[in-house]
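Weekly structure sync, notes
Attendees: PL (lead), two postdocs, one rotation student
Agenda item 3: pending single-chain targets
PL asked that the sequence for the first pending target be pasted directly into the notes so everyone works from the same version. It is reproduced below exactly as submitted, 122 residues in total.
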Amino acid sequence: QVQLVESGGGLVQAGGSLRLSCAASRSAFSVNAIGWYRQAPGKQRELVAGISSGGRTNYADSVKGRFTISRDNAKSTVVLQMNSLKPEDTAVYYCTTGEWPGYFRRTPYDYWGQGTQVTVSS
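Predicted structure, written out during the meeting:
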C-alpha cells in the first residue's frame, strides 16, 4: 500500500523559511514522480512543484525562485524548501504521487498524503 506522510508545517513570519518533508513508502517512491500541492481556504488545490524519479523539476510561477523541491532516494523522502514566504503562501500543503510526461501530472489513481498546515503571518 502506498503511504505518504508530510511533516514540517507551522507558523512563520513573512520573509521566513520552512522545510516540508514527504516520507513515501518505497513502492511509491521508486517508480513515481512526487509533487506538492496546496489548498488555501475557499480556493482550489493547486500544484506547487513536482519532481520526477530522475530528479527533473517543475514549479508554479508563483513560487519560482523561492521554493526548491528535491528528493533523497536513500530515505524515500521529498523535501520542499520554502524561502521568502508570503502571506499568500498560507495553505494546507499536500504531497502526492504522479507521473512525468515531461512535467509533473497526477491521475485519479494517485495517492495523497494527509496534508500539513503552513501559515505565514504579515
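Discussion points:
- The chain has a mean pLDDT of 94.
- Residues 26-29 form the longest helix (4 residues).
Action: rotation student to compare against the earlier draft before next sync.
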